[in-house]
Amino acid sequence: MSSLARLPLSFGAPRLHYEETINADPISVRDTIVEIMKRLQHEFPAQSEGIISTEIVLAEVLNNIAEHGYNQSNLGDIIVSVLCTDDMISVETRDHGLPMPGLNPPEAELEDLPVSVDDLPEGGFGWFFIRSLSSHMEYRRAASQNIFCVQIPTVSELATQKP
Amino acid sequence: MMQTTTHQDGILVLTLSATRIDAASAIHFKDDFRNATAAPAKRVIMDLATVTFMDSSGLGAMVAALKSLEGRKLELCNLTAAVEKVFRLTRMDKVFPVHTSMKEALAYRSPKGMDAA
């Protein structure tokens, strides 16, 4: 059974929108996101907060796997599944890349931006986006497989309340 | 990916044709930006109207682009909802001057003394 089924209940029957095995490289990741967004836009308004958040979270989750799990080798599979209900979009990924450090999704807080432009960060926003745009996430390592699930609310008080 | 137009008063306008600034295009974007801004210009304004999506790699590329200007500002206009969200969440909208339209960007005059700050 998919781990998505164990995530907190939300309204409406879950509908499967996407399930594919993709190659872990930036172009495949981009093509996959475009395809998933095309399907989700049949159900949710294109510019709604939940849809925008989902696209950002998808990109960060998939690119993290390609970059860190598979070390930018462009070799390796990711199984991507997307389910949604009326109020929630759930994304699940499975891959055989390296485990997350400490077997936990990295903490990520936004630090005060430095005064000097030269000191501005050019990365490290990925987990901050995933954490701040999702309502729930879960990571497991099972038999050399990483299983990661994340839920994004479609009617997002979460996102609109953040400063 | 990037078209340049030089306006009166030494304003360089960069118009993008890309729709996504992401992990797949970030390096290309940085190279294009350096080439496009090699000649000196008093102001640099980037029109992001075509960009419907930007991820953390894309945002990193924008920061790298800003740094390559060595002290000059990188002004932005016509942000789509997704791009606006990425800038707002990371508070980068406080680092890059953001204008709602190109017309507003071109008409903008920075308050006296702000350039020196």
UniProtKB/TrEMBL annotation, chain A:
Instruction: Give residue ranges for domain Histidine kinase/HSP90-like ATPase.
Output: 23-147
Q: Which CDD domains match?
A: HATPase_RsbW-like
Concerning InterPro entries, the annotation shows: HATPase_C_sf (IPR036890), HATPase_dom (IPR003594)
Q: Which domain of life is it from?
A: Bacteria
Keywords carried by this UniProt record:
Kinase, Transferase
Name a GO molecular-function annotation.
Answer: kinase activity
Q: Does the keyword Transferase apply?
A: yes
Q: What is this protein called?
A: Serine/threonine-protein kinase RsbW
**Source organism (scientific name):** Litoreibacter ascidiaceicola
UniProtKB/TrEMBL annotation, chain B:
Superkingdom: Bacteria
TM spans (from-to): none
Q: Residue ranges of the STAS domain? A: 21-109
Q: Which GO terms describe its molecular function?
A: anti-sigma factor antagonist activity
Entry-linked InterPro entries: Anti-sigma_ant, STAS_dom, STAS_dom_sf
Q: Which family does it belong to?
A: Belongs to the anti-sigma-factor antagonist family.
Q: What is this protein called?
A: Anti-sigma factor antagonist
Q: Which organism is it from?
A: Litoreibacter ascidiaceicola
